[in-house]
Fold each of these.
Amino acid sequence: MPNEFNDTWRRDFPILAADENGQRLVYLDSAATTQHPVQVLDAVTNYYKNNNANPHRGVYELAMRATDAHEGARHRVAQFFHAEDDEIVFTQNTTESLNLVAYSYGLHFLHAGDEIVLSVAEHHSNLVPWQRVAQATGAKLVYLYPGPDGRLTTDELDKKITAKTRLVAIAMVSNVLGLRAPVEEIVTRAHAVGAVVVLDCAQAAPHMPVDVKRLDVDFAACSAHKLYAPMGMGALYARAELLEKMPPFLSGGDMISTVHEQSATWAEGPRKFEAGTRNVGGEVGFAAALDYMNHIGWDAMMQHEHALLDRMLKGMAALPWLTVYGEPVADGRFGVVSFNVKEVHPHDVATILDAGGVAIRAGHHCAQPLMEYLGIGSCCRASLALYNTEEDVDALLNNLENVRKVMGL
Ligand code: PMP
């Protein structure tokens, strides 16, 4: 991909044009949250300037425009996941989407003795809700453990997905290891024993197409703020037959059909799960971000990110005191590289890099069971998005060279 293209994309993001402490901002924390292109910022501003009202409530022209914006955004998100409009529930984020499945599906359809299979690499959002379901129902948590290269093996899937499995919860891409899970193999095994599959797409959706029908998953969760859109917006895909039989999670206004003194009936489809006033500005931003990505196109984005990842991993391989977690190859890895510098605490690494204008994340990345499994307390994580450039990767590598010197090692 020619460099001028990369810079064109970067120039769409006003925050990246601003200097950070007098230096060019090298933003390598997009797995935590992405920045926003001007096209998304303008779409949100335009909504509040021209179309803001409470959707589904008024019959006047402005309220109808707000309703169109709300349902139009749902259609856009459904297209993104290759789902039907009625299979998309708007939520606040991946965490709320996964909790919705846990509290509505998990608490009602899982029982004592059932097994919930999940990877030890899950983000706490796709782990703690299942612990609570297990505690409440008597179901058992069964963990999948990756091999030394960070990948799940077929043997491990065969061993852990059994006749007792009722639900498999898995991240399509781990927010620490950056590796794509063998989703197709998991779905085949889960469906063969009658279990449902809950896919956490928080880290996958920014980097690759997620076709829920082709993957044949039952639920899929994502956060808009990792997709160049505002915070406070997320989505849940739920297969129509499942969504229909699931009871509401939150209740109140807008999710009902009728309410009497002693009872109520529920709205149809995704609205059953959308209680209270919606974040329509966020939804509009979400749809605009998906349009922006669509305009660039998956081929261009994926090629660009793969080249940057390859450059980063090759550069890191030349640093003998640096350990990368998960197989250090760009193929099958997306957007995320976690690492440690020998004898330097990750927070010190991140602080030294920050002084050089490079923003990375350090900590347990909401994946404490994985940290325990890897035998580390925490690590550094550099993550990519479409606005990163070769210059960003080189700035990371150059500043990393400096870390041990600054620490006197
Ligand atoms: N799952 C994964 C794999 C993630 O990376 C994250 C965010 N770091 C989440 C779930 C939770 O996302 P959110 O905080 O937007 O709910």
Amino acid sequence: RATRGGEEVRGYAPSMGQIFLRRFQMVTQFRQALEDGQVSVHYQPKVSLPGKHVLGVEALVRWQHPEFGKVDPDEFVPAVEAAGLVGALTSFVLEKALDRVRRWLDEGLRISVAVNLSVRNLADADFPAKVADALERFGVPAELLTFELTESGVMADPQRALPILRELHSLGIVLAVDDFGTGYSSLAYLRQLPVDQVKIDKSFVLGMGTDLGDLAVVRSIVELGHSLGLTVVAEGVEEDVARDQLEAMGCDVAQGYLISRPLSEERLEAWLQARTAR
Ligand code: C2E
Ligand code: CA
Ligand code: CA
Ligand code: CA
């Protein structure tokens, strides 16, 4: 075991070199990992308030790495983005997601799916055409697809992102601003974006039970969203009290561990069946 300043360094505190190496390996192995089935998509349900009707699911990517084990998307997505490989990631997730929706449609279920976009997708002028092609191939109506994008992703290069967003929107795809409240959050700017939904960042929703400031932020986002005619979604709903408060404020949709954690496709099927059987 290594010692530092006389104190024992326990467990796996990685050095900068190890972090760099791991990141480098992840980036170089990513494409192969997609082909080898190490990467999968989990789905987290979104329910209406107050009805608790399942409106849709959010697709969240998972990587089971042979050496590192489960790698968190917060770690590998930024690395994949920086390496210019996010186009492959988004296509992979989109195809899985549309295939899932297609099979639900075949069973008579209308459940929408939300896919997270990266800033790099919004710099690819061919992206809307690729998406239109995928929708057609799977025979999924555009309104059953939502794209979640962060404000910072749009703000990085609005000149480039805006025409792409408009094109996606004109296809009939639902657009949501993710992590709302954390970025620039310019209200004037929100009005100019072709968006349908705002997702209140989970940090405010998690804090609203104990922090009056967070509660005020949540309340004002609900009001602002509604005054702009947007659907308001809260993520990070972990407690009954939070759900009840959100419902009382008029928030439209809830997502979080209280309803369900992100689930593998198989477990999601079981979850959906258990709900409709009740
Ligand atoms: P996000 O888009 O903000 O996704 C929500 C994150 O919150 C997910 O983490 C989800 O598991 C977690 N979460 C959901 N409900 C709760 C709750 O009640 N409490 C708490 N504490 N957390 C909750 P996850 O799956 O680790 O994803 C992290 C981030 O990675 C996502 O944040 C998103 O920015 C990115 N990401 C995930 N999948 C993709 C993808 O396919 N493409 C891209 N570009 N980014 C992705
Ligand atoms: Ca998201
Ligand atoms: Ca979010
Ligand atoms: Ca996030």
